[in-house]
Amino acid sequence: MILFYIIVILSWSLPPFFYKKLTADLSFINIIFLKHLLFHILILSYVIYLLINRKKILKKYATETLNLSINNKLIFFGLVVLSLISGYSQLEIISKSQISYFIPIVRAFSTLLITFVGAYFFNESITKIKFLGIVFTILGIYLLNVY
């Protein structure tokens, strides 16, 4: 399990630095296009592998997708659109600010939003420790902005 945490931490922490470097030579739209093109080439390779070797798995994926409720299909579509808009916005911010300033602020506000959405929509509890964490997060954001 620790390996998965390390992979996620690295994949969330390092790419902004590389994207900032890429913005010197490529437009934001080009970066997004190339990223998704390469991603889809990898996915297509996997689908071809499944077609050749594992048709049952591919059929299961297709059945699950087709059986999604219209509400879940709309949610999925919204997530894809949000992801594209977020990717463009992230590149815009990265190209014009310090990553060590931008990422902690985004992650802190993301943590706050996750906590409140979890409590309001999914009945997750906000314990005293979580509340204290929120206070320290707000204090941290203040210190990042002031100093």
How is the secondary structure organized here?
Elements (H helix, E strand, L loop, with lengths): L1 H12 L1 H8 L5 H26 L1 H12 L3 H27 L2 H24 L5 H19 L1
Helix pairs in contact: 2-5, 3-4, 6-7
Protein model, in words:
- It is a single chain.
- The mean pLDDT is 87.
- The chain has 2 domains: 15-96; 98-147.
- The chain is globular.
- With 147 residues, it is an all-alpha fold.
- The protein is built from 7 helices and no strands.
- Helix 2 (15-22) crosses helix 5 and helix 3 (28-53) crosses helix 4 (55-66).
- The relative contact order is 0.07.
Q: What is the number of helices?
A: 7
What is the average per-residue confidence, as pLDDT, rounded to a whole number?
A: 87
Straight-line distance between termini? 36 Å
Q: Outline, from the CA principal axes? A: globular
The share of residues in extended strands comes to under 5%
